[in-house]
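Ticket #405: bound-state structure for magnesium ion.
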Amino acid sequence: MNVLIISPGYPADMPEFTRGLSESGAHVIGIGDQGTHALPDLVRHHLSAYIQVPTLWKTDVVIAELRKQLQGKNLDRIECLWEPGIMLAAELRAHFGVPGQSIEQAHCFRDKEAMKIALEAAGIRTPKHIAVNTVAACWDAAHEIGFPVILKPIAGAGSSDTYRVESADELRSVLPLLRHVNTVSVEEFIDGEEFTFDTITVGGEIRYHNVAWYRPRPLVARSNEWISPQVIALKDVEQADLADGVKMGQDVIKALGFDTGFTHMEWYRKADGEVVFGEIGARPPGAHQVDQMKYACDFDVFRAWGQGIVQGKMDIEFERRYNVAMIFKRARGVGRITRIEGMEELHKRFGEHVVWETLLRPGTPRRDWRKTLVSDGFVMLRHPDLQLTMEMADAVGSELHLFAE
Ligand SMILES: Nc1ncnc2c1ncn2[C@@H]1O[C@H](COP(=O)(O)OP(=O)(O)OP(=O)(O)O)[C@@H](O)[C@H]1O
Ligand SMILES: [Mg+2]
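RESOLUTION: The complex was predicted; output attached.
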């Protein structure tokens, strides 16, 4: 079986997914804009061929290059696990007659307006929303929905250009910031906790799912530099107060007719218990959340996905053993990291529960916390008990400090 994977070398966990395909028995052909020499070793090892294109974002260029290089070789699957390439993958499938997600289906995962309309038709609770492309329409929408509202691009990612707007005054000051966005979604602001529902789905059946809890909500985490944002992959996904969210996730997969692959949904739970749909991607979550799944169940999640794609089944066993918390740190100050405080102390207290740590070392330039989810590195730790997991995560948040100058 020949599987084409788009951008096998980027972002960070694509090499592992490439491995997952090849270890499941596929000939994996990569296509990307990176030079061969820039590909991580793991990718090179698991690719049968690599096609370098000048850009991935001109579909006709990609098609022409593929035609030339494939020399009549058939493709059985075309996969992309990276948000910007979801439509490209669907367009290539349509062009080369390869099974998998169609352009119409992909559109519902990429365009947040189409997504919500499809889900509402299936009876799923979404935030009230109005898509607008003029300033006047934005005012009308805000008044119709009522403050506070959320303003965001209909095809955004990484909370870019997303604003919570409390009042007419705030709307006046936010509108100029959105001038470059073609279509803005004005949404009812949903107050509550925020979770994910992530799946590996095979032939329309959910074979594995994960629920992660964001502490605090991403928009808050990404608006306040002092916060050390946490994501906790939960061990007990059967617990009663997640049941409505999990049920919603299952309904969403059905409603959108998702067939095979990874999905990443976000949902809200209000104080009164009502659950509300947030968004869904036809791809895994980023920022090492897939690695959290791996550590939660000690299983090869990348290969499980690959098996689903290549063999149309997933029989890799897994057992939910741990809650896995990832805590992202942001240094104080600008420039280069000068020191890390509190690490030894925390290591003594619970070092045995830490599975991964990527904090930037002294001498390294700080990253721009607004542009990267991983900030200046993270600590990943795990424990079967949620309360203890949260206590350790909070200690990393408040007792571990990076400084830069
Ligand atoms: N209607 C809403 N009510 C409350 N909060 C919202 C709403 N829409 C978005 N948010 C907040 O903004 C964040 C980003 O929005 P959303 O997830 O839709 O966009 P995104 O840019 O695709 O995000 P990402 O790629 O980071 O997941 C959400 O995680 C949530 O915290
Ligand atoms: Mg989101």
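RESOLUTION NOTES: The chain has a mean pLDDT of 96.
TICKET STATUS: resolved
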